[in-house]
Amino acid sequence: MDIVPDLVTNVCPFFFSFFFFFLLQPTGYMENSVSYSAIEDVQLLSWENAPKYCLQLTIPGGTVLLQAANSYLRDQWFHSLQWKKKIYKYKKVLSNPSRWEVVLKEIRTLVDMALTSPLQDDSINQAPLEIVSKLLSENTNLTTQEHENIIVAIAPLLENNHPPPDLCEFFCKHCRERPRSMVVIEVFTPVVQRILKHNMDFGKCPRLRLFTQEYILALNELNAGMEVVKKFIQSMHGPTGHCPHPRVLPNLVAVCLAAIYSCYEEFINSRDNSPSLKEIRNGCQQPCDRKPTLPLRLLHPSPDLVSQEATLAEARLKSVVVASSEIHVEVEHTSTAKPALTASAGNDSEPNLIDCLMVSPACSTMSIELGPQADRTLGCYVEILKLLSDYDDWRPSLASLLQPIPFPKEALAHEKFTKELKYVIQRFAEDPRQEVHSCLLSVRAGKDGWFQLYSPGGVACDDDGELFASMVHILMGSCYKTKKFLLSLAENKLGPCMLLALRGNQTMVEILCLMLEYNIIDNNDTQLQIISTLESTGVGKRMYEQLCDRQRELKELQRKGGPTRLTLPSKSTDADLARLLSSGSFGNLENLSLAFTNVTSACAEHLIKLPSLKQLNLWSTQFGDAGLRLLSEHLTMLQVLNLCETPVTDAGLLALSSMKSLCSLNMNSTKLSADTYEDLKVIPPSLPPTLLPSFPPSLPSFLPSFHPTASKYWFFALWSLFSSRKAVPLADKAVNGIMAG
């Protein structure tokens, strides 16, 4: 008896499902589908005392009566069937054109039908465009006038729809063959504007990018040339200070990069082994030993440095002619014997760097000559990059897009390209925003950035270092690690810095003074050379004298003696602090309280001169990120820091990761984020076991019972975090991290 319910439960659902599915199978007259081509007429039917919402289809051999659930669904069926029926008709008519007057008339009727259709679907406008696209691809012998008539006829459909790929190819051909046609200005302009505003990925529709590229080149062929292109860019940006369309800039940059690459594409493909950027850069510093992979012409070879094999190769290799109709390449190798840069006998001094700079380095120069069309294309799109860099709101994104140097290495070896692009880099170097000028540096370690390419000795440097000095000046003002940046300059660019300072460049004079002030240079002879360089110019001599005065004051300040603890009165200013520290010796000062004063980040220049400082209280001051970065570079022995109610942000707090001696940190009521907290928490300092963080008496009673290994969590969200509801999640994370330890 118990088996029957199980059978009903398990079998019946399957049986009823199968039976229901069987009932849904078409039977009788509905077994065969009705093709759209077989429908002769579609009518709405309604009569008294009859089912409502009926639709009658007339087909050969009878009629089909369809009943919908409501009038809306019936009308939807009616218009959809009419649309399908008419589309089939136009496909049939336009597939075998006889007279183009009739074809043009049918295209206009097709466009009107699509525009007046009550249906809302992407295919309503795309289907006519695909029909016309297929028509044009199958009939390539049309005249120019017929081309323009068809383009004008389908123009209304292009206002709100992207052209299909085949139609894009047809448009590209028209732009190349008739760039001065009025169709380009009147019809293609709104189409390209829509592409730039709404396209999300040219990788999925590369022909849209190619069409945009050819359209801009067609504008450049007009009488006004770049003025028309400039007005087009202005129309894309808009009259306001901020462009309302976020996709315009990335799309324009993508078009520019693709066009610039196309200028060198034939040259790239014609070479079996084009040189890497590293080889190009090193070519300006040392002779290139790599065997050439294309015909070379050695000009003025040095017999001491050119091997016999290279001499034999010279006899075989002729003046270069690359198999390309667009590009001609000439590679020259000039070698000069490097002077012996060794110290005199019995002397460990370094070679004179100024003398090294005066020696012309052995270089490998690649001279690239583009054809007329490629040269015009390159000039047009580099000019567009210049126009883009002139807009303040576009410059941060443009700098970010160009930071990885997305150009082929052949372009970077082309003197004309790097000379024209220099304007864009100069605009980045002049922008005071860190998000812009920081993009001059490389995206990661070991990779060249614009700073390296346009610095003296770089492949793109064509001046005496003016751009390099501008980049150094702006980077020194807001660079994350000022001391680290100076170390990098001292290791890699000390020679160019000294040469520019010798020529009176004030920025380089300041750099050399900072190197001396921060003890960046360890070698005594190099220090003497820097001092000699500074004293050789008026501005350098004056700044060096100021440096000496500061050093004397610093020695007096750091002389042993004075108080160990010091508290400034409330509302004291930076000038008050400077005046106080200049009044005596503070070499023993270990604890300094500036709480509730009006000091700012500017006082950091005085704080870093205190050698014994271990505890610093900046509670409720205006001490910001810039000062925090400076403290993190110089006060590496600081143990206690109070930043409560200061305007520091994540950008400055991340600099604290270098302060390995820090064991107590108060960041209540700051803009600390959870992500920065996690980043700092995983960097434990090398603290002795006795240097444990001290807790105030107002902390909850459970805190002193932590496990002893909790000392590895050098960063704590202190008791005051619990007083702010906004900071409770951070406090919970801190407590959980300590408890887990």
Can you tell me about this structure?
This protein is an alpha/beta fold. Among the domains are: 3-72, no CATH class; 98-223; 559-691, Leucine-rich repeat, LRR (right-handed beta-alpha superhelix) (Alpha-Beta Horseshoe), CATH 3.80.10.10. 51% of the residues lie in helices and 6% in strands. The chain contains 31 helices and ten strands. The strands form three sheets. The chain has a five-stranded parallel sheet with strand order 6-7-8-9-10, with no helix packed on it. It has a three-stranded antiparallel sheet with strand order 1-2-3, with helices on one face. It is elongated, with a radius of gyration of 38 Å. It starts with a helix and ends with a helix. It comes from Ursus maritimus (Polar bear). Pfam families: PH_21. One of its GO terms (biological process) is in utero embryonic development. This is C-Maf inducing protein. Keywords: Membrane, Transmembrane, Transmembrane helix.
Give a quick set of tags describing it:
alpha/beta, five-stranded parallel β-sheet, three-stranded antiparallel β-sheet, 31 helices, 51% helix, disordered N terminus
Instruction: Please name the CATH topology of one domain.
Output: Leucine-rich repeat, LRR (right-handed beta-alpha superhelix)
- Counting H and I runs of at least 4 residues, what is the number of helices? 31
Compute the separation of the termini in Å. Answer: 64 Å
- Rough outline: elongated
**Helix content bin:** 40-55%
Average pLDDT, rounded to a whole number, is 76
Sheet with the most strands, sense and barrel status = 5 strands, parallel
Low-confidence stretches: 1-22, 276-365, 686-741
| Computed CA radius of gyration, to the nearest angstrom | 38 Å
Supply the CATH class of one domain: Alpha Beta
Task: Specify the CATH architecture of one domain.
Answer: Alpha-Beta Horseshoe
Number of strands: 10
Strand order of the largest sheet: 6-7-8-9-10
Structural class: alpha/beta
> What share of the residues does DSSP label as strand, in percent?
5-15%
CATH homologous superfamily designation of one domain: Ribonuclease Inhibitor
